[in-house]
Amino acid sequence: MKASEIRDLSHDERIRKLNELKEGLFNLRFQHGIGQLETPNKMMVNKREIARIKTIVREYELTKKDKE
């Protein structure tokens, strides 16, 4: 998911997507631990998406604070 696509989402949708990705990362780590993960690259991609969403959520919070 691109940053522009994330910015188009509402704040609640971003938080929901972040929680889904965190849950997915947990499942990937579990699969990796028991040796069932076929492509470890999925973990890296998932971590990057989490970081991307967290960055945009933080930007939103800072701009919202500045407007107050």
UniProtKB/TrEMBL annotation:
Keywords: Ribonucleoprotein, Ribosomal protein. InterPro entries: Ribosomal_protein_uL29 (IPR050063), Ribosomal_uL29 (IPR001854), Ribosomal_uL29_sf (IPR036049). GO terms for biological process: translation. CDD domains: Ribosomal_L29_HIP (cd00427). One of its GO terms (molecular function) is structural constituent of ribosome. One of its GO terms (cellular component) is cytosolic large ribosomal subunit. Pfam families: Ribosomal_L29. SUPFAM superfamilies: Ribosomal protein L29 (L29p). It comes from the Bacteria. The keyword Ribonucleoprotein applies. HAMAP family: Ribosomal_uL29. Belongs to the universal ribosomal protein uL29 family. PANTHER family: 60S RIBOSOMAL PROTEIN L35/50S RIBOSOMAL PROTEIN L29, LARGE RIBOSOMAL SUBUNIT PROTEIN UL29C. This is Large ribosomal subunit protein uL29. It comes from uncultured Desulfobacterium sp. The gene is rpmC.
